[in-house]
Amino acid sequence: MTSAKPDVLDLGRQQLPLGRHTYIMGVINLSQESKNLHTVARSVDEALLMADRYRQWGATLIDLGGQSSHYDNPTIAESDEISRVVPAVESLVAEEHLVSIDTWKPGVAQAAADAGAVVINDTGGLADAAMREVVSKSGLPAVAVHIEGSNPHDVGEVEISSTKAMETADGFRALLDELAKEGIDNLILDPGIALNYRGDYEGYTRMQLEVIAASSALHELGKPVLIPIPRKRDFHRVAAYLSLAFEHRADIVRVHDVALAADLARLFGRLP
Fold first, then answer.
1. Structural domains of the chain sorted by starting position, each given as residue range(s) with its CATH number in brackets
2. Nearest of 88, 120, 115 to residue 101 by alpha carbon
3. pLDDT value at position 2?
4. How far apart are the first and last CA of the chain?
5. CA distance 263 to 152
6. Separation between Cα atoms, residue 84 and residue 82, nearest integer Å
7. 3-state secondary structure the chain
8. Alpha-carbon distance 197 to 96, whole Å?
9. Of the candidates 149, 196, 209, 249, which lies 20 to 30 Å from 238 by C-alpha distance?
10. Residue 49 Cα distances to 95, 162, 213, angstroms
């Protein structure tokens, strides 16, 4: 059954009209362990400079993370993650950036929300009851990320399937029904194709493209759709993912390469 998508994404002091545009969410990593070195900020000042640059290029949202999601990297304590992200959230919010917090830890999400973040990007897939409570009490929109595991550090081999988009939509449909019973409905859907899994790298690469091309199955659920653009060794593949995401009318793209994303969004007539 197709549900009507809201006309706007309400971010408190700002509303983003949905439908005609694809909003760019630029990644800033406060985790020096991150493998995407060009997105790593080693201080609050560096994070602010990077966020300002992203905004000049065309980004609307900034996705801050203090914990590397790659399964090869260590899982840091919640308190350490909070100490990494909260000063940066406060600094960016003071300069009127719209900040999303990328975490699967409820305490981090709560601290970031208290510091002014306007989106909770839960890479744990909103499966944790404590995270659901944070989302419910904050009233903030939350990104539900499809994940095959309890969190990005607890994953095995990805299941390769030619019908992955439909399977992901079916999973989201069940999750939306479950969350609605708890009064949580301010949601953004992310098919999770930028998460790192063990297994068949090239098979996963092809499946990532297939999921974007079939993302109408996600749009039919009546929620904004965020396509996370995988960071690849071959940079032309990043452009391919972005082009598909714009062609299939993603509401948001989460990117490590903001200038490229903004240029292609203009080309497709999707930049706000």
1. 10-265 (3.20.20.20)
2. 120
3. 55
4. 30
5. 30
6. 5
7. CCCCCCCEEECCCCEEECCCCCEEEEEEECCCCCCCHHHECCCHHHHHHHHHHHHHHCCCEEEEECCCCCCCCCCCCHHHHHHHHHHHHHHHHHCCCEEEEEECCHHHHHHHHHHCCCEEEECCCCCCHHHHHHHHHHCCCEEEECCCECCCCCECECCCCCCHHHHHHHHHHHHHHHHHCCCCCCEEEECCCCCCCECCHHHHHHHHHHHHHCCHHHHCCCCCEEEECCCCCCHHHHHHHHHHHHHCCCCEEEECCHHHHHHHHHHCCCCC
8. 35
9. 149
10. 11, 41, 34
pLDDT score of 1 = 46
Residues with Cβ within 8 Å of 271's Cβ and at least 6 positions away in sequence, in order, are 21, 22, 24, 58, 262, 265
Strands of the sheet containing 226-228, edge to edge, are 187-190, 142-145, 119-122, 98-103, 61-65, 23-29, 252-255, 226-228
Chunked mean pLDDT (size 10), the chain, 272 residues: 81 93 98 87 97 98 95 93 98 98 98 98 97 97 96 91 96 97 96 93 94 97 97 90 98 97 98 96
Res 232: pLDDT? 84
Cα three-residue angle 169-188-175, rounded to 5 degrees? 45
Residue 234: its pLDDT value, please? 86
pLDDT of residue 96: 97
Place of tokens 């859907």: 189
Cβ pair 23, 16 in contact under 8 A: yes
Residue 36 CB: number of other CB atoms within 10 A? 14
Whole-structure pTM over 0.90, yes or no? yes
Instruction: State the Cα–Cα distance between residues 224 and 5, nearest whole angstrom.
Output: 7
Which is nearest to 68 in space by CA: 27, 99, 114, 19? 27
